Each structure stands twice: as structure tokens, then as C-alpha cells.
């Protein structure tokens, strides 16, 4: 597809309404013909956050380290601060700032000037970006490679001066140097001690660079230069020489159009792996955009068989890709399970990267980024990730070494949120009494390592650790380590120590085992972090994915479990929305006390499949998708977290979901599309057919798996990868008998 066609299609898609038409200038509706599944992708969906972070419109190749989006607050902002040459990490920094200008800078304030643009003249595709800067009449374009990129700046024809203002985003030693009449090199120090190197070439000769200081410079091209200035460049985390080799590997004879075409082909390959039929245009736009977001990270940082590791600050040789940039608290629930279906060999390379990180740093990471394990959130959910993938047959890495890291985390690491390192006296309470201790309201924190903002999160930590310990137990059993299996199987039930029978909710205890009386809806400070994390006790009531039958027993059985689920979606806030969100800004996408905008809630609507009313899962999922995942700039109900929430959308739109990572099975929801086909890496296909599915026909009337009638709402991972067909008959009213077979439940 040509750049011209991209511009035309993107402009039309940006104006599209749900009825698959736009309002033209003459007020007549013009039919939009979507020619390719790629055309449904709109990176601007969700670019305005509900309360916190927006979802960024990343331009990159799938799972590659060269990422770009213009620096601005969100989609509502009509000014761009700068164009980065590299997004180093998802929401964790950039390198090498650049902006065009029509005059040489006079003061340092020139680098601070923001550039006004027109949203309707901006084009954002996964493989191509363009915008028009209104104040100076400059058009900016970008195309991504793997370790490379190309910027084009089309200056006005009468421009006497064509200039690029260069700057760095990070403190520390840095430089900009013109090494010939059209070659430029730069270094920047990221996160205090990581050197990022850049090598590039301009299409104009006799460039002139003026340095203001260590961080700022300008490059001018003069009136005789081409109207369009092009910068082709490469980056490296290894060396300046490697940056130049990366350039030569990818860009030596590559044009802007070729690089954009190559990137588009890379996206075509991954997006066309899942083909859907039926559904509305809006549903397809939300679905394929969510699928695109699932490829933002992790990213491959290997360069010519080498990579820089932030885990031991060394360069390593490798014959496999080395991946970084993963936030496991967000991604173990759906993102990694989705990748285990779509690209299990890539998932194995990512698991191998985790093992390498453990060997290099001494700890199994939980939020592995470029500079090391970014201590964030709570739990060691990489343990669940490993168990889930191994049980699905992904074993092309050192499984014993992975278990060694899991075991060390479970026995020697601190469980404190947002902290790395050895255990404290608080972990000893968990090991001996089965719960992480909390403080009473107003009590002074005696443990210096506790983060002053993130606090202890005592209930959330206990529940998460119970799940992680279950994963260690199950992995130990698979490896024949019976002593470990028994020990951690017992710890997997630790969640029960905080169940309050009177209030029927998980509540905190102090170190002596005394209940701390709180309001589980609202107490615990900002985000409830004294006891929970980003959500209140109503969300954490359901954080026992590994033992749903045990949780059901605590609640009094199947009927009480179902009634409690009903109450969750109907329970009032008990206060104004402003009061609620001032304390819980992450708890967005609310339906009653259910928070669609945060990861711990993903599995909850599917829990109806363990009751006598699976039809309620179908009802809830369709309502949540249609309410909170619109195909517009507000179409993500919370922090999307680089694929974490989007994977939920992909699974739920296809009609099934992994309720319990670690158990290789999927529970059935309500497919949006009449037919969805997944091309598997083993050459087979898995197809979901939902006959008569529509906005109204959302309820399952009957089901067959490979021609055999089923009355239980799940199937196994093995059945999926073996290839086959799940066929559902859909209707407008629930069949309250379907899915209630005696063997219902995992």
C-alpha cells in the first residue's frame, strides 16, 4: 500500500462512525470500503485516559525496540513537545529529542517551544506516522525499522533556513556530533548508567551543527538544501560502532517508502493470523486495534547476535532473541496466554530471557525492563507465567533454572510492593502465619523498606502470594520435587487466613493475627494501598483464581457465590464518584463495584461459568465490551499497560478466556463475530463459529466442539492447538440450561 493510499484510508477511518459511514461536506453519507484487516487498526483509540495514563499511539514493528510516538499529553492536546528518535521503554523514557524549525535558535527557550498541529491532518498507523505543523508549515513523517527509523521533514518551498533542534531527554553525559558533511552521531545516558548510541545520515550535504551545551544542538541545512530533509538513523545499546552496523544492516539502500512497506508487511503477517467475519465495523476496529497493541512489547534488543543486559551491565553473545519491557502484574493474566497461542516460539524466547535475567541478577524478575527489574506493583507472577506456559508445552528454555528462580523468589525475596531484594521480618510472618501483616489505621510504619506511598498492601500481597505459591507447588510436582510441592501446596491456601466470615470479604490482620476493622470499600489511603492495591476489597474478594472451588466454599457454596457476583455488579459506591475516584483513580470503568479499568478484574465476569448461570457471563462480557471499549479516543477504560488490557479484549471478542493462568484451559464467553479463525504456528487452525451472533444475539443456545455436543463452558489448550472448531448457536434470550453440565468447572 502506498503512502498516499495510507493517508486517504486513514483520514476516512478517523471520521468513521459505527454505521460504517461518514458525514461528507455535502451532508451525504459516503460508504467506506475497508480493503484489509489492517485498515481497522486505529492507534488513536484510547488516547485519552479515563483518569490516569492515556494509551499511546505507538508506531513500531511488532515486538521490536524501535518505537515512536510524538510527545504530548494525550490526544486532546493540540501541541507536540518533541519527536523522539526512540521510545526506550513502555512509559519509562525516551532518547534523542528532535523538532524542526525555520530559524536558528537564539536562546535555550527555543527548545521548549511546542509545535501546534491539526488532528485531522495527522495520520497514525502502526507502520507510518505523519503530521502537519501549522505554525511553520512543516510536514513530519516517520517510518519504523527494527533498530532503525527514518524521519522526513517537508519544509515550505520558500524557507530560507531549515533547521532541526536536537536535545536529550535524560540527565547524564550526552553528545551530538556531525562526523561528516551529512553524518551525525549521538549518545545519551538512560536511567543513570545505560549508554544509548545513535548513528544517522541526512539526505542533504554540507550540514552545519551548532552546539549550545552538552544536551542541546541544532543542525541547519541552508537555503540550497532540498525542501524535504530526511534523517535515516539507527540506535544501539551496545556501542557507536554497533549503531552504524545496525544502520548498514537495515538502511543502507532502503528508502522511506520501502521501510514503511516492510513495516506494514510485518504487521500484515501478525494481524492476518486472526481472521474474523461478521460483527460491526466498530467491533472490528476495537478488536484489531487491541490485537495491534498486544505486539507493543516485549521488545527484542539483540543486535548482531549480542545484547546489552541491564541485569549485570554486560554485553552478552546469544543465538536467541533477548526480550525486555514486560510488566508481569499486568501481562500474566491474558497477554502472555494470548502469545502462547499466537506465537509460542516467541513466548519461549521471552521465557528464556527471564531465565537469563535471573542468572545475571540473582533474582527472577517481575517487571523486566532495559535497566533491570523495575520494582513495581506486587507479587511474583512470573511464577504463574512459567507454570502456564510449561503446562501448555512451551519448554524451549531451562525449566529447572526457571524453577530455581521461582523458588528463590518464594523463599528469600521481599514481598513488599515496589521493592526488590532480600526478605524482611514481614515475610517471616507470612511464612509462619500465612498472611502478610498490616498496620492499624494511624499506626507508624516501623519497617524502613516499606515504600511510603505504596505501603504494605497486605491483603493484596497475601492473595497474590497464595496464587504464586500455588504455581511453585504445581511446577515442583511436575519436576518431581515432592517436598517443595507439599510445602507450597499448603501455602497456596494462605488466602483463607484473611477471609472474614462475618463480612464475607478478605480483611487485613495485624502481625499478632488480630482483625483490623476497616471499610473494605474505601479505607486504606490512596488506592487502598495499606490493605489492597489500586482497587478496594470488592475487587480483591475474587483474587483466588487458582482455587475457585475453595473460594466458593468460603462464600457458602455455589448459590451464595453467584449471588455475591450479582451484588458486585450492583453494589453502590456509597459516596460520590468524585470522592471515590479521588482515592481510587485506577478503579475506572465501574459497574457497581466492578472495575473494568484495572487488571485484577479481568477474570471476574467469567466466574459465572462456575455457577448455575453461565448465561450471566455472556451477558456481562457483551455489556462490558460494548460499554467500555468503544472505537474512539476514550475507548480504553483504564491504564492499558502495553497490551495487558488489550489481550482481554482480544480473548473476549473471540469468545473465550483463560480464567486461571497455570491451568491450560479456556472458559467460553460470547463471541462478537460469526466466525473467527486463528492460524496456529503448528500449521493448524482453531475456529470459533457463532451462528447468528449479533449485538442482540449474544446468548449461547447450544454448542459443539469438533462436532460433539458440549454442555460445559470450557475447552482445553490442547484441544485448541490440535486444531478444530468450536461451534455455537446464538440467540437473543439466554438458554439457562446450557453450560450447566455436571462437570462444569475446572
UniProtKB/TrEMBL annotation:
InterPro entries: GH92_a_mannosidase_put (IPR005887), GH92_N (IPR041371), Glyco_hydro_92 (IPR012939), PNGase (IPR050883)
Domain Glycosyl hydrolase family, residue spans: 242-732
GO biological process terms, semicolon-separated: glycoprotein catabolic process
Pfam family, any one: Glyco_hydro_92
Keyword Hydrolase: yes
Keywords (A to Z) from UniProt: Glycosidase, Hydrolase, Signal
EC number per UniProt: 3.2.1.-
Annotated signal peptide: 1-24
UniProt GO cellular component terms: cytosol
EC category name: hydrolase
Domain Glycosyl hydrolase family 92 N-terminal stretches: 40-236
Molecular function GO labels: hydrolase activity, acting on glycosyl bonds; peptide-N4-(N-acetyl-beta-glucosaminyl)asparagine amidase activity
The name this protein goes by in its record: GH92 family glycosyl hydrolase
Amino acid at each position: 500500500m502506498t503512502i498516499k493510499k495510507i493517508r486517504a484510508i486513514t483520514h476516512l477511518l478517523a471520521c468513521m462512525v459505527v454505521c460504517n459511514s461518514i458525514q461528507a461536506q455535502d451532508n451525504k453519507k459516503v460508504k467506506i470500503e475497508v480493503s484489509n484487516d489492517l485498515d481497522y487498526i486505529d492507534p488513536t483509540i484510547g488516547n485519552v485516559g479515563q483518569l490516569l495514563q492515556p494509551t499511546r499511539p505507538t508506531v513500531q514493528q511488532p515486538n521490536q525496540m524501535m518505537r515512536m510516538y510524538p510527545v504530548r499529553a494525550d490526544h486532546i492536546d493540540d501541541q507536540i513537545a518533541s519527536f523522539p528518535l526512540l521510545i526506550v521503554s513502555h512509559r519509562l523514557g525516551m532518547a534523542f529529542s528532535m523538532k524542526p524549525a525555520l530559524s536558528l535558535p537564539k536562546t535555550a527557550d527555543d527548545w521548549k517551544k511546542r509545535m501546534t498541529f491539526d488532528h485531522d491532518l495527522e495520520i497514525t498507523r502502526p507502520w507510518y506516522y505523519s503530521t502537519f505543523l501549522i505554525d511553520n508549515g512543516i510536514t513530519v513523517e516517520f517510518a519504523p525499522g527494527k533498530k532503525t527509523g527514518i524521519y522526513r521533514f517537508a519544509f515550505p518551498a520558500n524557507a530560507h533556513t531549515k533547521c532541526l533542534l536536537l536535545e536529550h531527554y535524560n540527565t547524564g553525559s550526552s553528545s551530538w556530533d556531525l562526523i561528516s558533511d551529512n553524518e551525525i552521531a549521538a549518545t545519551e545516558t538512560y536511567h543513570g548508567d545505560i549508554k544509548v548510541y545513535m548513528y544517522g545520515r541526512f539526505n542533504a550535504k554540507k550540514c552545519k551543527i551548532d552546539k549550545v551545551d552538552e544536551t542541546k544542538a541544532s543542525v541547519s541545512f541552508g537555503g540550497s538544501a532540498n525542501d524535504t530533509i530526511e534523517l535515516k538513523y539507527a540506535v544501539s545499546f551496545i556501542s557507536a560502532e554497533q549503531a552504524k552496523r545496525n544502520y548498514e544492516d537495515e538502511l543502507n539502500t532502503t528508502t522511506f517508502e520501502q521501510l514503511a512497506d516492510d513495516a506494514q508487511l510485518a504487521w500484515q503477517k501478525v494481524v492476518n493470523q486472526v481472521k474474523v467475519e461478521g460483527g460491526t465495523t466498530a467491533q472490528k476496529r476495537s478488536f484489531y486495534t487491541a490485537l495491534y497493541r498486544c505486539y507493543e512489547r516485549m521488545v527484542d534488543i539483540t543486535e548482531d547476535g549480542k545484547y546489552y543486559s541491564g541485569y549485570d551491565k554486560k554485553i552478552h553473545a546469544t543465538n536467541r532473541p533477548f526480550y525486555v519491557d514486560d510488566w508481569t502484574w499486568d501481562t500474566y493474566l491474558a497477554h502472555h496466554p494470548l502469545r502462547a497461542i499466537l506465537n509460542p516460539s516467541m513466548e519461549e524466547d521471552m521465557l528464556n530471557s527471564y531465565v537469563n535475567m535471573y542468572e545475571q541478577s540473582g533474582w527472577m524478575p517481575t517487571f523486566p525492563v532495559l535497566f533491570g527489574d523495575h520494582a513495581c506493583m506486587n507479587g511474583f507472577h512470573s511464577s504463574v507465567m512459567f507454570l502456564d506456559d510449561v503446562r501448555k508445552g512451551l519448554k524451549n528454555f531451562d525449566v529447572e533454572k526457571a524453577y530455581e528462580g521461582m523458588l528463590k523468589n518464594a523463599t528469600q525475596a521481599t514481598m513488599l510492593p515496589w521493592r526488590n531484594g532480600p526478605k524482611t521480618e514481614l515475610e517471616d510472618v507470612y511464612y509462619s502465619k500465612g498472611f502478610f501483616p498490616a498496620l492499624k489505621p494511624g499506626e507508624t510504619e516501623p519497617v524502613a523498606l516499606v515504600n511510603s506511598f505504596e505501603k504494605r498492601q497486605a491483603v493484596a500481597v497475601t492473595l497474590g502470594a497464595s496464587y504464586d505459591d500455588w504455581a511453585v507447588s504445581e511446577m515442583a510436582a511436575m519436576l518431581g520435587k515432592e517436598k517443595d510441592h507439599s510445602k507450597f501446596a499448603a501455602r497456596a491456601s494462605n488466602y483463607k487466613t484473611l477471609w472474614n466470615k462475618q463480612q464475607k470479604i478478605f480483611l487485613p490482620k495485624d502481625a499478632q493475627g488480630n482483625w483490623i476493622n476497616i471499610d473494605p470499600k474505601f479505607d486504606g489511603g490512596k488506592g487502598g494501598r495499606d490493605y489492597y492495591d489500586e482497587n478496594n476489597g470488592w475487587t480483591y474478594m475474587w483474587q483466588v483464581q487458582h482455587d475457585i472451588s475453595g473460594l466458593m466454599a468460603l462464600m457458602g457454596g455455589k448459590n451464595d457465590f453467584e449471588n455475591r457476583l450479582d451484588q458486585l455488579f450492583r453494589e453502590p459506591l456509597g459516596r460520590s464518584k468524585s470522592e471515590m475516584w479521588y482515592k481510587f483513580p485506577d478503579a475506572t470503568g465501574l459497574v457497581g463495584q466492578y472495575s473494568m479499568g484495572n487488571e485484577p478484574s479481568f477474570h471476574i465476569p467469567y466466574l459465572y461459568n462456575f455457577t448455575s448461570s453461565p448465561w450471566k457471563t455472556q451477558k456481562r462480557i457483551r455489556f462490558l465490551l460494548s460499554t467500555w471499549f468503544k472505537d474512539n479516543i476514550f475507548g480504553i477504560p483504564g491504564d492499558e499497560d502495553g497490551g495487558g488490557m488489550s489481550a482481554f479484549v482480544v480473548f473476549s471478542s473471540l469468545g473465550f478466556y483463560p480464567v486461571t493462568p497455570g491451568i491450560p484451559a479456556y472458559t467460553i464467553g460470547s463471541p462478537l463475530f460469526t466466525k473467527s479463525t486463528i492460524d496456529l504456528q503448528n500449521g493448524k487452525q482453531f475456529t470459533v463459529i457463532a451462528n447468528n451472533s449479533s449485538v442482540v444475539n449474544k446468548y449461547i443456545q447450544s454448542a459443539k466442539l469438533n462436532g460433539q455436543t458440549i454442555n460445559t463452558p470450557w475447552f482445553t489448550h490442547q484441544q485448541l492447538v490440535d486444531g478444530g472448531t468450536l461451534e455455537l448457536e446464538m440467540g437473543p434470550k439466554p438458554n439457562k440450561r446450557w453450560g450447566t453440565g455436571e462437570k462444569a468447572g475446572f
